[in-house]
């Protein structure tokens, strides 16, 4: 009986470890597929952490918005606020984005699928023009189980001077 219990525990641990590896691979594959699609279909593809900080794609976003390029040392030294995607939005747009992401989180609890949505955001560029973007948002967990957002931004209209 004790040998059976020990064997069962070891088998359960092996199964749990194998399941975690499979889940991580699925997560990584899904992340790669979504990133690849967004990179091909959109002007800018961004990866954000759960606090809306840009993890990947900051240089592309800045280039699309006509901000001057930054040297690697300058890019590394950007303060946390400037690494936040919310830094590029006004207060109303930030709130709209947060509400949509919160809605996605609630939907994913009942759906068990990777949540996604789309919306239009207006971002001020380096010349103080308002730029309208169609934004596609996908929520995924990375291989460490952390929530992240993958955003695809496609410029949707002519740039308008800020009023």
Strand content: 25-35%
Anisotropy-based shape: globular
User: Helical content, roughly?
Assistant: 40-55%
Cα-atom radius of gyration: 20 Å
How far is it from the N-terminal to the C-terminal residue, by CA? 78 Å
Question: Residue ranges: pLDDT <50 for 5 or more in a row?
Answer: none
How would you describe this protein?
The protein is an alpha+beta fold. It has helices at 2-41, 58-64, 72-77, 80-83, 91-111, and strands at 44-49, 54-56, 116-124, 129-141, 147-155, 160-161. Strands 1, 2, 3, 4, 5 and 6 form a six-stranded antiparallel β-sheet that branches. β1 and β2 form a beta hairpin. The longest helix is centred in the N-terminal third of the chain and has 40 residues, at 2-41.
Summarize the structure.
The protein is an alpha+beta fold. The chain is built from five helices and six strands. Strands 1, 2, 3, 4, 5 and 6 form a six-stranded antiparallel β-sheet that branches.
Quickly list its features.
single chain, 163 residues, alpha+beta, six-stranded antiparallel beta sheet
How are the SSEs placed, and which strands pair?
Layout: H1 2-41, E1 44-49, E2 54-56, H2 58-64, H3 72-77, H4 80-83, H5 91-111, E3 116-124, E4 129-141, E5 147-155, E6 160-161
Antiparallel strand pairs: 1-2, 1-5, 3-4, 4-5, 4-6
């Amino acid at each position: 009986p004790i040998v059976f219990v020990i064997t069962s525990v070891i088998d359960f641990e092996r199964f749990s470890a194998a399941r975690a590896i499979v889940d991580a691979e699925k997560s990584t594959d899904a992340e790669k597929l979504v990133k690849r699609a967004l990179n091909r279909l959109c002007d800018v593809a961004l990866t954000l952490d759960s606090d809306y900080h840009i993890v990947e794609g900051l240089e592309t976003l800045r280039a699309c918005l006509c901000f001057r390029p930054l040297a690697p040392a300058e890019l590394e030294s950007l303060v946390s606020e400037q690494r936040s995607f919310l830094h590029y939005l006004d207060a109303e747009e930030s709130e709209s984005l947060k509400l949509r992401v919160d809605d996605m989180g609630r939907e994913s609890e009942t759906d068990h699928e990777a949540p996604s949505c789309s919306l239009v955001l207006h971002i001020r560029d380096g010349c103080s023009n308002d730029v309208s973007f169609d934004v596609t948002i996908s929520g995924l967990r990375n291989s460490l189980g952390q929530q992240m957002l993958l955003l695809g931004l496609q410029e949707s209209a002519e740039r308008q001077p800020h009023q």
